[in-house]
Design goal:
This protein has 391 residues and is an alpha+beta fold. 17% of the residues lie in helices and 37% in strands. Strands 3-26-25-24 form a 4-stranded antiparallel beta sheet, with no helix packed on it. Strands 4-5-6-7 form a 4-stranded antiparallel beta sheet, with no helix packed on it. Helix 1 packs antiparallel against helix 3. The chain is elongated and about 115 Å long.
């Protein structure tokens, strides 16, 4: 065996120091990653106003409106909010009850003209109120400021309007359940611009009581209640997606994502007596409410409005509107903040924490078998280079 001259011991020691430094750094990173994961799993964190990490959390019950006094509700069905005023249709009393955003009663609109009002929407500028009346089979417009009647909007054919949504361009989306159930988009003069679904025979789609309609950008979302699904249509009225819900949903509202993030939806789940928060793909992220008659309980909720850090729930069975609020005091459990379990960071951290084991393997003693004649030479060179010792 040929052995070169000179001792490489200093070079070996430098390599070993570098190796030890790398292992220590990897171990430190592993400790930091494990600490982050432990905090996410075990620590209860304070949530921001509406969402944590872009995922909505359940709000806290705050107060109720319309249970007693002058503004007492009989059978509330739908609500909308604008300009610090909450507008609630009362199908038995035959008017729209108006409350301030602190729950105090303000006044009524449409008394003596409305008969069985069902759904309500406020115009984009907050100036007008649109109300559908089931008995009249009509859509009526009122002045939101003084409550005076403006006009009846008709499309020129018999219809049975239910849900209504005011679009930013001044047009209206109205669900029509006379004959073939559909969504019509019409102007104030009654001109029908389009309808959803379209009449193309190559793409049949049947709605069964579309009880709510909302605009998200230039797309239309519809609560197809009896089919237990949420439908999205594009600006041309073509179906984009169908989100199966497995529950009876009448009213719903849109929860825009933080900083342009994905939207979520708040659904009034009538038979579970709860409000359910879902993604636009239908995944549930939180829920609140539950069967009961008082406080943070609901009975057959029919509609929900999310606005300015609060969720207003039309609690039809309890003849009231209940308000839940998000805020700095909302403290969801870690399972709500982190519903999908450990992330990949935990696996990487575990691997990095095992790095010292690799160092021990690299620095373990090595036994060498050799002939008697080579032992003296190997002992000398091994002691210089690798600190070998004879066995």
């Amino acid at each position: 065996m040929r052995v070169g001259g000179g001792s490489p011991a200093p070079a070996f020691r430098r390599r070993r120091r570098v190796l030890v430094g790398v292992v220590v750094a990897l171990f430190a990173v592993g400790v930091a990653g494990a600490a982050v994961e432990a905090r996410r799993m075990l620590v209860v964190e304070e949530a921001p106003a509406v969402a944590a990490g872009g995922i909505p959390v359940a709000p806290q019950y705050a107060f109720e409106a319309g249970r007693d006094g002058e503004g007492r509700l009989s059978r509330p069905v739908s609500a909308d909010i604008a300009g610090g005023r909450l507008y609630v249709t009362d199908s038995v009393a035959g008017h729209v009850a108006v409350f301030r955003d602190d729950g105090a009663f303000d006044r009524v609109i449409g008394a003596g003209r409305l008969q069985v009002p069902v759904y309500v929407a406020v115009s984009a500028d907050g100036a007008e109120l649109y109300v559908t009346d089931r008995r009249l089979g009509a859509l009526l417009a009122f002045d939101a400021a003084d409550g005076s009647f403006v006009e009846t909007i008709t499309p020129g054919f018999p219809w049975a309007p239910i849900a209504v949504e005011a679009v930013d361009d001044g047009s209206l989306l109205v669900s029509d359940v006379a004959g073939r159930h559909r969504i019509v988009r019409l102007l104030r003069d009654g001109t029908v611009v389009s309808e959803i679904p379209g009449t193309a025979v190559d793409a049949p789609l049947e709605l069964d009581f579309p009880n709510a309609v909302e605009m998200v950008g230039d797309h239309v979302w519809v609560s197809d209640s009896n089919n237990r699904r949420l439908l999205e249509f594009d600006e041309d009225g073509a179906l984009v997606r169908s989100v199966p819900l497995g529950r009876l949903i009448r009213g719903f509202d849109v929860m825009p994502g933080e900083d342009g993030g994905p939207v979520h939806f708040a659904l009034a789940d009538s038979f579970s007596h709860q409000v359910v928060l879902i993604t636009d793909a239908g995944a549930e992220v939180a829920r609140f409410g539950g069967p009961g008659t008082e406080g943070a309980h609901l009975a057959f909720p029919n509609d929900v409005v999310v606005h300015d850090g609060a969720a207003w729930v039309v609690d039809t069975g309890n003849a009231r509107v209940a308000a839940w609020q998000w805020g700095e005091a909302t403290r969801p459990e870690a399972a709500v903040l982190w519903p999908r379990g450990p992330s990949g960071l935990l696996l990487v951290s575990a691997l990095l924490l095992s790095s010292p084991l690799g160092l021990l393997l690299l620095l373990r003693p090595v036994s060498v078998a050799a002939s008697p004649a080579s032992i003296p030479m190997l002992s000398i060179r091994g002691a210089d280079t690798h600190r070998w010792r004879p066995v």
